[in-house]
Amino acid sequence: MKQKFNAAAVQMVSGCDLAANLARADQLLAEAAGKGAQLAVLPEYFCLMGAHETAKVAVREAYGEGPIQQALSDMARKHGMWLLGGTVPLAADNPEKVLNTSLLYNPQGEVVSRYDKIHLFGFTGQGESYRESNTISAGQTPVKAETPLADIALSICYDLRFPELYRLLAPFDLLIMSAAFTATTGEAHWEPLLRARAIENQCYLLASAQGGLHQNGRRTHGHSMIIDPWGRILAELEQGEGVIVAEIDPDLIQSVRSSLPALEHRVIR
């Protein structure tokens, strides 16, 4: 039986300077560790929100090497915590694109799980236009990381809109969502989608977001949240940089699933 533990969502407003973003992430993780977090999650694009879409291609790294991955390994080891490194731009087969990848590090600084973002965001409206497929190659494989703390479903931003992804991974204790939701789509859909994913999977959900006006002019929604299996918001940070922490309780997961065994009642699989 897994034990209770504290998990942290780190919210950032990352800019165009890679080194500055890494240093700020380290400061916020120190804050999370000081609040007793045994697991911390960084947001999507934590290391770089560049002036142009191609900026992340210029700093792409081969899997297992490079300054971004080394920094994440060092931070996990330094703060003695499990660390989900938001997203890292890893080299793709196409030299003009990257894989948008979440890496999970153990407290010894070792990578124990990798997830390449499957669903690529595209949106045009209200004066905005985004097409991640211009610079990102899609991943292919859903990932659930089995750790001593929890069984964790890994996902990134736009994945949130595709519940079938999580059905492939169920059951799990914790769903991690690293995101950089736009202000426009986030205001309309962020909270209801997060709560729905927690409720339907009867799991905790930890959403770590970008939250504010970035150096490149982009505005992100923020509202990092930790949600319990009943859909209750345990902690939330609306805007700006900071850390929220909440307790993950396996007994509550079991209680919810025992009283309302919806996962067992599934008919269509």
Automatic annotation (TrEMBL):
<dbReference type="InterPro" id="IPR036526">
    <property type="entry name" value="C-N_Hydrolase_sf"/>
</dbReference>
<dbReference type="GO" id="GO:0016811">
    <property type="term" value="F:hydrolase activity, acting on carbon-nitrogen (but not peptide) bonds, in linear amides"/>
</dbReference>
<protein>
    <submittedName>
        <fullName>Acyltransferase</fullName>
    </submittedName>
</protein>
<comment type="similarity">
    <text>Belongs to the carbon-nitrogen hydrolase superfamily. NIT1/NIT2 family.</text>
</comment>
<keyword id="KW-0012">Acyltransferase</keyword>
<dbReference type="InterPro" id="IPR001110">
    <property type="entry name" value="UPF0012_CS"/>
</dbReference>
<dbReference type="Pfam" id="PF00795">
    <property type="entry name" value="CN_hydrolase"/>
</dbReference>
<feature type="domain" description="CN hydrolase">
    <location>
        <begin position="5"/>
        <end position="250"/>
    </location>
</feature>
<keyword id="KW-0378">Hydrolase</keyword>
<keyword id="KW-0808">Transferase</keyword>
<dbReference type="InterPro" id="IPR003010">
    <property type="entry name" value="C-N_Hydrolase"/>
</dbReference>
<dbReference type="InterPro" id="IPR045254">
    <property type="entry name" value="Nit1/2_C-N_Hydrolase"/>
</dbReference>
<dbReference type="GO" id="GO:0016746">
    <property type="term" value="F:acyltransferase activity"/>
</dbReference>
